[in-house]
Specification:
Radius of gyration of chain A: 35 Å
Radius of gyration of chain B: 32 Å
Number of helices of chain B: 25
Helix content of chain B: over 70%
Largest sheet of chain A: 5 strands, antiparallel
Strand content of chain B: under 5%
Shape of chain B: extended
Oligomer: heterodimer
Structural class of chain A: alpha+beta
Distance between the termini of chain A: 80 Å
Largest sheet of chain B: none
Number of strands of chain B: 1
Structural class of chain B: mainly alpha
């Protein structure tokens, strides 16, 4: 093999990630790669030798990918989102939003839902101090409190975070006294565990490495243009399907017959296929197992072997050189060579990462151009290990650091041996290394110095990559890069034995699944959301093939597997300036390139692809099938809490004793347990209905106000709620409980001290420019302290002699509130701000 | 001006924001997609200002258009994006010129209506906005001109960059300056070699000859200072080293050339670049250096890249060597070369191996073969000598198949499937050869020996 010469100039510095004083020569320009220095010293002959800035574009046939198969019968749940894990709302002093795990909410959910678990031991300890029924009794030794009142106060729906939650003195006292005991035990025991779990979930949300490599594979069939798609399906992704697909026609792929199905006992995370010396193997990685099948001539797989990986498998790869050889790596840091005949042979083990310390247990292994040398990768770098050499030897192939001018916080996400593709001109020594920022091509003969670097800028972790054979002679090879969020990028890589690999044109992005939302018919919001969730499901598999062209333009078929189990496909046609290149002299300097260039950029003017009738019909059929799929019930529903419910449980407790007895008896006799044995059937719990609470009042009031009876309603409400005794106490409470301040509707009641001269008190603190509706709507959301201050100010102003009040201050108010009489304006604000 | 006042009243804690965001992901990894996720959740807090919102939206539109090859659209957005240069946020304002240059040059490189003049104007403007990028942009501008065959303009550009000064030079600027000078040296090399070509056409006794040669001499001086500084810095400098050595050689400074190449190849701070060793070997070969020297260079190359084409030459040198250890290494080199996936169909290598195996076995050194074979006997049979390959090779290249069959016979015995398959084939021309092969396999196969 020849080694490319001369290589592109590059600095080589050693050091940690994000070293800033190294000039980054790559500049991240795609065109810089085209500027290979002229080999021939004669500049005149150089022009012809250099490739022109050709425009190479795979043009999508449709604006987005289309589902290939009808949706499976299993419902799909998008799972946790950032919304579930993070604090909603942010620190107002921060310019950038910040991720803070919302432990309090999770904890409070837990306490609501599983209060029995959290508080039973404590409750048992405090049992003698509480009494469930009857009045409280006093004795000299112990104070026994009746819970009845406490529970009664807790009646009504008081959801978490409700700023208007109504607290009685008794509750407050109880919470102050019991708080340290209750919160300390629960929060100290549970909080730590919860935090760990949430951090884990959050990290998973940021980067789900399980599907690294992809769970979709294309097995070329015996006849050209046909093949099998291998992918997992089912709600748990535990059924492996082999589906025959024909790509012979230029149009849509035809699904042939029913799929072959293999039922597994774990979710499929990665599917790899490889054909070596005419023998096709299929390997599958699950969380703790790896399995390999041999695919026969008829496309039927025969199982060869399954291995168990105790610590969890992170990657499996098939040898491109020797049939039946695999590399498996585990979370423990071990890498094994695996052949079904000889079993596992450990070739590398190191629980530490290669370059610097990183906590991630993710490991990866792949093959190299030498059948006995493997690459071992982790988040920090990639090393080449000779399986026959004594342990401890090896050569770093890629180092996360200044050598590749890595950024701070950059980590390796995917390592792939690009190997030899049929008809490809790239040398078989190239390896692809993807990080969250960039893509590197590294030649194993020149370790540490990337041959090519491209800043992919994908908005999700690039965990999938496929190198395809060139669509035609002397055409660049397409390299497909897929992000977990469904973004696809296509790079055109060219290079041969004598010149380093480079980008032949600017990389392009392919339509993602979310782009095909427009192909579906208009739906009601709920179904629309279901569809959107389905389309936005993470991409967990990527496969592409170039079927034999049935015309002059090659076609690229791309298949995408989503976590919901759907396969989307799209095909793209190669639009190249090659055909138009003849118009102008190739590589001629800019001014001369212009006419040829102008003609060769039709896509700027060409209409963007649009949906055809066939595609939309297909999509709406698919949508109909999707709507038949039952939705997953939400795992969490708002808790309902009322004393009736609680006290009712006490009676249930008594009958529960009988139930257990009957259960035991049934078990002892070994007979079937009937429903009747379990006592009276518990009434099906109704879905949580909105409890009459403050919100309902709001609706009611708004309704009344809409009809112009707002004032009357308010009067009624006042009579109902507030007795004269309470009103007297209000001023005091206001200062005590700032939290309930905004809801204590009495502040501006006519009976309150500031009553007689209300209008100046309103006008003074309020900036006159603020329109009333806005101010009143934003009332409860305003910070509390200013409100309090405002009240104090208002009180002071109220004490002023009435003749000092500026007359015009009343005018805007009376204008603002056309529906109310001028004597009522002070009421308005607190009411709306309720 | 409301923006400005907000900027001023902003508390000073925001600098550690980035650090704190990564606190949640304790591993220290940076997630570029974190910001988007946060924005969907966090609704409160300070909102991005309109200006920041529009500019970031504009930036993403440009990137999207570029990735869809819509150069016209990207250019239109770029036109609006330039307003970021007036951003009140000093961080963003400072980072802006580089982004604009990166995207703008990309657009102008591909845009159908752009030409060199447009690019020149753009580059000249960009050099002076945010002076810190002057050198980088000058360098890329020069490369662009070079790409379009405008050597003189490129040279002028680099000269300007060379004399550029702005405040204290940082370490990285110093390094880029070296690179600028080296590229200038390379341009001088191009003109030099052009003149050299002209010179070779002239009569030696001509007056013009002496003036020209004097000119050339001057240029060489400049070039050596230009390139010399750069190639001392660790890196990959193939084109510079190559041209520099060529010039040194032309003026008879062989020691200087050797020093440059030796340093380039053997300095531990440099990456192990196979080209460095290849250049050194080629130089020594031109210089007719002693064989031992050539062997030592190739031995190092063998350790770095056992799959290189030059290994065949290395093998020939070793085969001819008097020393026994060299001849033993000669066998190892051939085996090593054929280990690689890209070399399996290298007929010369198989030919050499077949011939050399026979020679070694005739000389009665079966242990050498045995030694090499031991580490390969588990996988070479499937890697090289499978039934599949026998069929394939025979179909594609009968010569290759014959050579391989012989090697297979020697190493695996006459029962080997590859050997048997080839033997079965009835070929008019090769019948004699195959018969001979059968004979030698019977005689020399190492399998018989071990029995």
């Amino acid at each position: 093999m020849d080694f490319p010469s001369p290589l592109r100039p590059a600095f080589f510095m050693t050091g940690p990630l994000g070293m800033t004083d190294i000039p980054d020569l790559s500049f991240m320009c795609s065109w810089r790669d085209a500027l290979t220095l002229p080999e021939s010293p004669l500049p005149c002959s150089k022009g012809g030798a250099l490739p022109p800035a050709q425009d190479l574009l795979w043009e999508p046939a449709l604006p987005g990918p289309v589902p290939l198969l009808p949706p499976g019968p299993d419902p799909w749940d998008p799972g946790l989102t950032a919304r579930d894990l993070l604090f909603r709302g942010a620190n107002p002093y921060r310019r950038q939003p910040r991720a803070v795990l919302d432990i309090t909410e999770q904890l409070s959910h837990f306490l609501w839902d599983h209060g029995d678990v959290a508080f039973t031991p404590l409750g048992k300890l405090m049992l003698e101090n509480f009494k469930l029924e009857g009045n409280r009794s006093r004795s000299k030794k112990v104070t026994v409190v009746s819970v009845k009142n406490l529970v009664r106060d807790l009646s009504g729906h008081q959801p978490w975070g409700c700023p208007w939650a109504y607290l009685t003195h008794r509750q407050r006292r109880f919470s102050i006294l019991g708080g340290p005991v209750l919160s300390r035990t629960v929060s100290s025991l549970l909080g730590r565990l919860l935090r760990e779990e949430l951090a884990l979930k959050w990290e998973q949300l940021m980067l789900d490495e399980a599907f690294t490599g992809g769970a979709l594979a294309w097995l070329p069939g015996r006849t050209v243009g046909t093949g099998q798609l291998v992918y997992p399906t089912g709600g748990a992704l535990d059924r492996l399907y082999l589906h025959e697909v024909s790509l012979a026609s230029a149009g849509d792929p035809q699904v042939l017959g029913d799929p072959g199905c293999i039922q597994l006992r774990g979710p499929v995370r990665q599917v790899v296929t490889s054909t070596v010396q005419g023998e096709t193997l299929l390997a599958v990685r699950s969380d703790y197992h790896c399995a390999v099948w041999k695919v026969g001539r008829q496309g039927r797989p025969a199982p060869l072997q399954v291995v168990q990986v105790e610590k969890g498998a992170t990657g499996v790869s098939l040898s491109p050189h020797l049939p039946g050889e695999l590399a498996v790596c585990s979370r423990s840091g071990a890498v094994c060579l695996w052949t079904p005949q000889d079993g596992l042979q450990q070739i590398y083990k190191d629980s530490d990462t290669l370059v610097f310390r990183d906590l991630s247990p993710w490991r990866w292994a792949d093959f190299t151009a030498h059948p006995r040398v493997l690459t071992v990768g982790d988040r920090t770098g990639v090393k080449m290990i000779d399986t026959q050499a004594p342990p401890g030897c090896g050569l770093m192939l890629f180092r996360g650091g200044a050598e590749a001018s890595c950024q701070k916080g950059e980590r390796v996400l995917l390592v792939q041996y690009l190997g030899q593709t049929d008809g490809g001109s790239l040398p078989p020594t190239l390896h692809l290394v993807c990080t969250q920022f960039s893509l590197y091509l590294v030649d194993e003969r020149l370790p540490l110095v990337p041959m090519m670097k491209w800043d992919h800028g994908l908005a999700s972790p690039p965990l999938l990559a496929r190198l395809l054979p060139p669509p035609g002679p002397s055409c660049p090879q397409p390299l497909l890069l897929g992000g977990q969020g469904g973004q696809l990028q296509l790079l055109h890589i060219t290079g041969d034995g004598t010149s380093p690999p480079r980008l032949a044109a600017h990389p392009q992005s392919l339509p993602s699944c979310t782009d095909s939302l427009s192909a579906f018919p208009l739906l009601e919001p709920k179904s629309h959301q279901q569809l959107q969730e389905r389309l936005e499901a993470p991409t967990i598999g990527l496969s592409a093939t170039i079927p034999p062209p049935c015309g002059s333009t090659p076609i690229l078929s791309v298949f995408q597997l989503s976590a919901a189990g759907d396969i989307f496909y799209q095909h793209l046609r190669l639009q190249t300036a090659c055909s138009l290149r003849d118009e102008g002299p190739p590589g001629s300097p800019g001014p001369h390139r212009l006419p040829a260039g102008a003609a060769s950029h039709p896509q700027d003017h060409a209409p963007t692809p649009s949906w055809d009738a066939q595609a939309t019909a297909h999509c709406s059929r698919w949508m109909e099938a999707l709507l038949q799929v039952p939705r997953v019930p939400r795992t969490w529903t708002a808790p309902t809490f009322s004393h009736r419910h609680l006290l009712g449980r006490l009676e249930l407790q008594q009958s529960a004793g009988k139930t257990t007895e009957r259960l035991r008896a049934a078990m002892a006799e070994g007979r079937l347990l009937r429903r009747g044995d379990l006592g009276p059937l518990p009434a099906a719990e109704p879905p949580p209905a909105p409890q009459p609470g403050p919100q309902d009042q709001l609706t009611e009031r708004l309704g009344e106000a809409w009809e112009g009876r707002g004032a009357a309603w308010w009067g009624r409400q006042q009579d109902k709620v507030s007795g004269p005794k309470k009103q007297a106490k209000r001023a005091k409470r206001r200062t005590q409980l700032s939290s309930t301040f905004s809801q204590s509707s009495c502040i501006d009641h006519p009976d309150s001290p500031g009553g007689p001269t209300p209008s100046p008190s309103e006008a003074a603190p309020r900036p006159p420019v603020t329109p009333p509706s806005q101010a009143s709507l934003s009332g409860p959301w305003l910070p509390r302290a200013p409100l309090e201050r405002r009240q104090r100010l208002r009180d002071q102003v109220a004490r002023l002699p009435p003749e000092d009040t500026p007359k015009q201050a009343t005018v805007p108010l009376s204008q603002q509130t056309p529906g109310l009489t001028s004597s009522q304006p002070p009421r308005k604000k607190p009411r709306m701000g309720f | 001006m409301s923006d400005c006042s907000e900027e001023l009243t902003r508390p000073a804690t925001e600098d550690d924001d980035e650090m704190e965001t990564s606190v949640v992901s304790s591993a220290g990894m940076h997630f570029p997609w974190l910001q988007n996720k946060l924005e969907t959740v966090v609704t409160g807090g300070k909102k991005k200002k309109d200006f920041a919102q529009t500019t970031s939206a504009c930036l993403s539109f440009i990137q999207e258009a570029l990735l869809k090859h819509q150069w016209q659209r990207a250019a239109e957005f770029m036109h609006s994006y330039l307003q970021i240069l007036e951003d009140l946020d000093s961080h963003k304002r400072q980072a802006a010129p580089e982004i604009i240059w990166k995207l703008g040059s990309e657009i102008l490189f591909y845009h159908p209506k752009s030409n060199v003049e447009t690019f020149n104007t753009f580059a000249d403007r960009m050099k002076n906005i945010g002076v810190l990028n002057y050198l980088k942009i000058s360098l890329q501008h020069a490369l662009y001109l070079l790409h379009h065959g405008m050597l003189e303009d490129a040279n002028r550009n680099l000269s300007q960059a060379e004399t550029w000064r702005y405040g204290e030079k940082s370490a990285s600027q110093e390094i880029i300056m070296n690179l600028v000078q080296a590229y200038k040296g390379l341009l001088q090399y191009y003109t030099w070699s052009k003149k050299k070509m002209e010179l070779s056409k002239l009569d030696k006794n001509d007056y013009a000859y002496s003036t020209k040669s004097r000119n050339i001499l001057n240029q060489s001086w400049k070039t050596s200072t230009h390139i010399g500084a750069l190639i001392k810095i660790p890196g990959v400098w193939d084109p510079f080293v190559k041209s520099y050595v060529e010039m040194l050689e032309f003026y008879g400074d062989h020691d200087g050339a050797r020093k440059v190449l030796t340093n380039y190849a053997y300095d531990a701070k440099f990456p192990s670049n196979p080209n460095a060793h290849i250049y050194l070997y080629n130089f020594l070969k031109r210089e007719k250096a002693p064989k031992a020297k050539l062997l030592s260079v190739l031995k190092i190359l063998y350790e770095i890249v056992p799959s290189h084409q030059l290994m065949l030459e290395f093998h020939v040198l070793l085969r001819k060597s008097e020393k026994e250890e060299h001849r033993k290494l000669g066998l190892e080199v051939l085996f090593g070369l054929l280990d690689f996936a890209g070399c399996t169909k290298n007929i010369t290598a198989w030919k050499y191996l077949a011939k050399y195996l026979k020679q070694i076995l005739i000389q009665n050194h079966p242990t050498w073969v045995q030694e090499q074979w031991n580490s390969r006997k588990t996988w070479w049979p499937t890697f090289h000598f499978s039934y599949f390959w026998a069929k394939c090779d025979w179909k594609e290249d009968t010569d290759l198949a014959c050579e391989k069959a012989f090697v297979a016979g020697i190493l695996l015995g006459k029962g080997c499937r590859y050997f048997r398959y080839i033997l079965k084939q009835d070929h008019q021309v090769l019948r004699k050869k195959i018969k001979q092969m059968k004979k030698s396999v019977k005689k020399y196969s190492i399998v018989n020996l071990s029995i």
